[in-house]
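Honest question from a wet-lab person: if I give you the sequences of every part of a complex, can you actually get the arrangement of the whole thing, not just the pieces? Trying it with mine:
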Amino acid sequence: MTVYDTSAVRTSAVDLNHTGHYLHWGVIQLSVANLVVIGIMIVIFALAVVLPFPKGRGRR
Amino acid sequence: MSGQASTTPEPAEPSWTGAVRGRAVRAFPPDKLLPDRQPSWVASWIYVFGVLSITALLVVLGSGGVLALKGPDWWHLSSIGRYVNALHLWSVELFMAFMVIHLWGKFFMAAWRGRRAMTWITGAIAFAASIGTAFTGYLVQQNFDSQWIATQAKDGLNSVGIGAYFNVLDFGQMLMWHIVLLPAVLGLLVVWHVLLVRRRGVVPPIPLAHAEAESETAPGPEEAAS
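Yes, you can. This is the full assembly:
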């Protein structure tokens, strides 16, 4: 049987050794992590609409 | 066979291969299938998210193929296996995020205009297939997370009356859904979606479409003078 070193699984950049943080609005339950991701996606969407696109060849 | 016959989409004699070729070439002439120019309105970052989704999907399929070949021992316990496993996870995260931003952009453009309804529908079904593929991916992690999610999914599927058709507690069945059936469906949908985009073109902005429609219905200078 192969034995692997699992120490890297236990060490992480973020301390994950606790329950997640959740927000509740009535029947809606959302983790803070998911809310942050949704917020980042909305910011990226807004920037994609607003920021100018570099000029390129081959457009009519 | 003459040189002229080889370039003509119409077959010399009736045959199913000739008929399919004729229809394919009429629907997708080479300049439409692989265009080297795009309308000016495509010069916006919001039009980039479709191809970003496809790029992320290719990384998902590549990393998933390696995981399928090497097996759970490798992806859980070896350092390279954990890296490829993480690559698979994060490319899926990016794929879903890019696809949702693509969806938002197309929704606010009303991208189903101009005979593009099937483009919209194939995109929406591809999104649903992606969610199913991602869920079955959670089920084949082979950890406590996947056991918990499987029991929740079992209750969910039973509650909507389709529990008899899927056994989410069966690792083998969910692995096949995850790595064979759903990716095949998703792949076909994505190819169909892209071909429809090529055939119908990228949807013009709403103000431009309005201006074109008004110029078509408005009388010309001579017609107006008479």
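Two things worth pointing out. Residues 20-48 of chain A form one domain. The two ends of chain A are 63 Å apart (CA to CA).
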